[in-house]
Amino acid sequence: MTEEIFRRDGYAFEFESNVLSVEADEVELDITAFYPGGGGQVCDTGTIRGLEVKETYYKAGKIVHKVPGNDLRKGDVVWCSVDWDRRYDLMMGHTGEHLLFCSLRKQVPELSVNKIFISPESKYVVVDGEVSWEDIRSALVFANQAIRDNLPVTKTIMSRDDPELEKVRIKKERIPEGEDISVVSIGDIDLSACSGLHVMETGELEMIFVDRKVSAGKDGTAVHFKVGNAAKDAAMLMANACLEASDAIESKPEDLVRAVSNLKNGSETLRKTAGRFVRKRIMDLPTQTVNGVDVVGGVFPAVDRNVFADAAEMYKSSGKVCILVSAGDSVSIILSSGTERIDCRDVLSKVLADFGGRGGGKPDFAQGGIADADAADEAFFRLREEIVQRLQLIK
Ligand SMILES: [Zn+2]
Prior knowledge:
- By secondary structure, the chain is α+β, with helices and mostly antiparallel strands.
- It has 3 domains: 3-82, Beta Barrel (Elongation Factor Tu (Ef-tu), domain 3), CATH 2.40.30.130; 88-248, 2-Layer Sandwich (Threonyl-tRNA Synthetase, Chain A, domain 2), CATH 3.30.980.10; 276-393, Diaminopimelate Epimerase, Chain A, domain 1.
- 33% of the residues lie in helices and 30% in strands.
- The protein is built from 7 helices and 22 strands.
- The chain has helices at 84-107, 133-148, 228-248, 256-282, 305-317, 344-353, 376-393; strands at 3-4, 14-23, 26-29, 31-32, 46-48, 51-53, 55-59, 62-66, 77-82, 113-118, 123-127, 153-158, 181-186, 190-193, 208-215, 221-227, 288-290, 293-301, 321-327, 331-337, 358-362, 365-370.
- It has a 7-stranded antiparallel sheet, with no helix packed on it. Strands 17-18-19-20-22-21 form a 6-stranded mixed sheet, with helices on both faces. Strands 10-11-16-15 form a 4-stranded antiparallel sheet.
- Helix 6 packs across helix 7.
- The longest helix is centred in the last third of the chain and has 27 residues, at 256-282.
- It is elongated.
- Zinc ion binds at residues 39, 94, 98, 184, 194, 196, 198.
């Protein structure tokens, strides 16, 4: 049985050990400080006698170190080293997760944790509900004060029937029957059942910062955070982006949220007005009759795509050929045809090829686009010319 140093000392990262067994890439040691992962925290990496440990995990109740291509033998005495910078970042992240969650729950008391993920690249907690940026702001004020207060982080072992467990954040069903429960406390602000690795004092985190919040579908909301220097760097970059954005829309930084919201409402109103205008015009296009077939079309500002698609369908069902070009940041085109004499897909791919654009669809309905927004008028004229020529050729 391997002695698990990390259970009693998260700060030990170099140690001497005896090799208990070697099976291909998998090495078992009599003592290890390599954390095999758990509680949402990824496993440790490092070296055994200078050979790279790619991964550490439990296999049939034993801790296995994956050392690809090793030449280790049973009985070897080896010097081992956990990648300390990486491990310490994970310990800080794990402690940060406890601190962030208990701070969020001060704002939203009914919140519970659905998932935790702590890796060097990404740290987040998925909570089973909505949290607003205001909740997060208040939680961060609380959490960063707890960091300045340098609260002790301690681990105690409690039995399953200890009445004090009432006060602990715990998912009892996840803890095997008969096993004692490891409880981590942060000062007097949080008690949580957890067997992961944590730092000893909140001050070690230096700073915690939430840099992203995304929906996790039915699981709730993923709140991404950073600790230590990564938190300081992210906060600095985002504060700078906020100042730059304030300048760009000529608002004060403290008014930015309200100013952006007003801007968004304004552009939404404009978009709706433009949509109504285009819808009205598009239903009443001038008609050119060629060889008995009505051809309609025009160039419009970009509005809701459904406005164009509905109009194209309407013209098609009345037997007409319709060319709708909309110009925004790029050019979008819809062609529809109520006659077998015009194959939309064929016309579109031929004309768009000259503009470096692309399109596809069916003979009676095709769509495509061109990157160059200034080419809208020319594309329209070329499409109409192509359609008129084709209709004139057919007797
Ligand atoms: Zn933990």
